[in-house]
Structure formats: C-alpha cells, structure tokens
Amino acid sequence: MPPERVAVGTGPLRPEDVVRVARDGCGVRLTAEALAEIARSRSVVDALAGDDRPHYGVSTGFGALATLHIPVGQRGWLQRSLVRSHAAGSGPEVEREVVRALMLLRLSTLATGRTGVRPETAQAYAAVLDAGLAPVVHEFGSLGCSGDLAPLASVALALTGEGRVRDGAGALRPAAEALREHGIEPVELAEKEGLALVNGTDGMLGMLVLALADLRRLLTTADVAAAMSVEALLGTDAVFAADLQALRPHPGQAASAANLRMLLSGSGVVASHRGPGCTRVQDAYSLRCAPQVHGAARDTLAHAAAVAGRELAAAIDNPVITLDDRVESNGNFHGAPVGYVLDFLAIAAADVAGMSERRTDRFLDVARSNGLPPFLADAPGVDSGHMIAQYTAAGIVSELKRLAVPASVDTIPSSAMQEDHVSMGWAAARKLRRAIDGLTRVLAIEILTAARALDLRAPLRPARATAAVRDAVRAAGVDGPGPDRHLAPEIEAVVDLVADGALLRATDLPLS
C-alpha cells in the first residue's frame, strides 16, 4: 500500500514530512485551504496583468533587466523565457531525494498564496511530485541568492513539458512524454508564474533538512563508536559521570555523556580494571573528551534545526504578495541563514570524524592499545590487520577538513552587478552531503576496528549494548579476528549498518 499523502497547506511543513516525501516516496496533496488562498492572491496578480505601470516579475525583465518594460502581449512569453534561460545547470545529476525535497518545499511556498500563481499551476506541480517524477537537476547553477535558480528552473521547465525527468523507476524520459503518461497537462505559464517557480532557497533548505536527519543518527552512532573504543582500549567510564558533566552545562554534552554511561553499563571489560590496582590516571582526549566534542556537534545541530524550522515557516518569493495584498520586492531569497548553518554542520562533521579516526589509530599502535596485538593482526608481520583501514579513515578525514572550509564566506557578483552579493548556500549544502558520507565511513571503520578489539579482549565480556553492536557487525557477514582477508567489503557492510541505523537499533538508544 502506498504511504499516505503529505498534506501541503498554508502552514509550515514538518521536517519529518520532508524526509517522507524525499526519501520514502510519499505522495502529496494540496489542502482546500491552500487552494483557496492561492486563488485569492492570484486575483491580485490578475489585477496587475494589464497595468501599464512597472511591476517586477509581471511587466518588467529580471535581474539587471528589471528596468525594461514588457508589453502586455509578451508577459506570458516572458515567464516561459525566464524558465528556459534559467534552466542552465551543468554537471552531474543531483540525487532524486534532493529533487523531491526542493519540489516539496517550493510547493509549500506556492501553497501559502504569497507567490501569486494560479491554482491550476500549483495543482500541476503537486501532481508531478505525487506521480514520482523527478526532473533532471544538475550539480552546478545555483549561487544561493535570488533562490536556487537553475535547479528550480529545471523543475519548472519539466512542468511546462520541456526537458527531461526520471520516472519512479529511475528511467530517463522526455518530460512531455512522462507528463502525458500520468495525465498531467503541461502548464502554460501566466504572469509572474515563472518567477514564482524559481525564486526560493528550497534546494539548500531541502538538503539541510535531510542532513539534520542524517546527523541525528550519526552523532548518536558516534557515541556508540566512542563507547566501544573506551571499552576495548581499557578506558574509564568515570569521567562520564553526570555530576562531572553538569559542571559544564551544555545540553549536547549532557546527552552524549548519558549515552556513554548507558552504553558502558554492565561492561565486564571496564569492570576488569576498575579499582585501586589500576594505575591509569586519565585517558587520552579522544576517549575522555568524547561528550564535549560530540555534545558541541549536537548543540550545533540544534541551532541548525532552529534555523531550518524558521525557514520551513517562510514564504520566499520576489516580489511577494503580502497578507494585505500588496506586491512588494524584497530580499528574503538570500540564502545566508541557511548557508551559514550548512557550513557550521560541515565543521562539526569534520571534527567528530577527526576524533573518531584518532580512536581507531590508538587500537593499532602497541604503545597505546593496552595489550592488543600490533594493528590487531592475527600474525603481525605476515598479517597487516587493520593498518590500511586507518589509512582510509585518515584520507577521508583529510577530505572532510577541506569540506569544512565555509562556502558562505565566498561571493561572486552576477547579473551585471545587480546581484552583487550571493550566499553560496547551495554549494554549502552539496559539500555537507559529501561530509555526511565521509563521517558515516569514518565511524564505520572505528566500529569495525573496535568490534575486533572487543573480541580480542575475550574472555572479558563487553557491555550488553556494545556486545549487541559487535554481534550486528558479525551478523552482517563480517567475521571476527583471524588472518587477513579482503577488508573493503567488510568496511562497506558496516557503512551500510551505520547509514540505515541498524547499529543504533541494536543498542535501543534514542536519537538524542
């Protein structure tokens, strides 16, 4: 049975509904209230359609051409020309989930009635999304100001029956053919509609919402990885005590420390060296300070989620139809608020991954691993164990540091200096997606390595939660310690477990 449709109305979308539509293929429907408001505000645009006075986006050109008057008879053609010219993206196709997210968010803005499109245009847009059609959108083309112009124009082009789409099965089709198959009539754009379809931060916001869902899972997974490493490296859990953490009352730190306490509860490995006979005073920073780093990343995530929530409640267009039916130019399309937090999250992802890689490295060095064999090898010298797995993690971490360089501090003038400051928010979102993939892989390598180290600590028994993660890794076809074998498939198996949340489900940890 197909999932229930998400209702798109005059209020803000919920982040979880964006994920459902983008990733789970959930359909959409416009509410009656939205259609009524769309029709009401369209009457404002219709009243201006024959006006001789200049109204941006209705009777003028765009950008630096805004001073040029467009005769009444050419104003519909103006909108089609806008979409065709702005669908100027280049490079690889972006992911289907990104296209569906940006379409849903643009539809949400149309549904507010602040853009002045006709009800039939909004309904056609919803029908394309509901039919599972994903217009081809390219990697490059958005500067993150005046909206994600080229990506949104590629979607609008398909709505008019031009360009190409991917159908629900992923096949590349001419847009006109795919629309006809689903009984969707191509839209003949009327005054202002082309502009309304391309002028929003929907691409970067869609990627932010998806990234928030991913990072909630990954930051909790980072706590799992850290707990396994603390345990298998014979570290102490005493530093995670609630009263110690409360001396520095950051909420993310408290949540991370609570996770570590739960994960290590009942560990026979930790208990084996607890007491007056233990000569270790304190652990290395990558073990001891995990709640502080993971917690700071959590607090960054919370800030980004707050920004996303405000943006989901926004109605972004230029010009916009105000609540009292004025048609006003504005600068709300500037992507700075979204671009900043996208960059901030890339910094956090790089730092969490960097700490994870340092814990992985400690397992492999006999001077720091507290009795484990060199590189966790079965027969050191003949076997190399996880030596090169750490190289892989280190290479990814180095890439994550490059991806942490903020895109939002860059700007490049466009449109003959009319658009002389831009956000680069789309670029920030694209690199964050790569950073999330990298963090997933680095955590997977740490968990793979820690699981092997826990086995090597036998007959000491790990905690219930960490043992469950180790067992989930083994159930995925990754064997325990032994002679060297092809390691890349084992890494990928754990990457998949991290990415789909299977390891978290094994622990019963909530996403915090």
Automatic annotation (TrEMBL):
Q: Which GO terms of the molecular function aspect are on file? A: histidine ammonia-lyase activity
- Whether Lyase counts among this entry's keywords is yes
Q: Which GO terms describe its cellular component?
A: cytoplasm
Q: Name one GO biological process term.
A: L-histidine catabolic process to glutamate and formate
Sorted keywords for this record are: Histidine metabolism, Lyase
- UniProt key word Ribosomal protein: no
- Which cellular compartments is it found in? Cytoplasm
Where's it mainly located? cytoplasm
Coiled coil start-end: none
Q: What is its EC number?
A: 4.3.1.3
Q: What is this protein called?
A: Histidine ammonia-lyase
> What species does this protein belong to?
Geodermatophilus siccatus
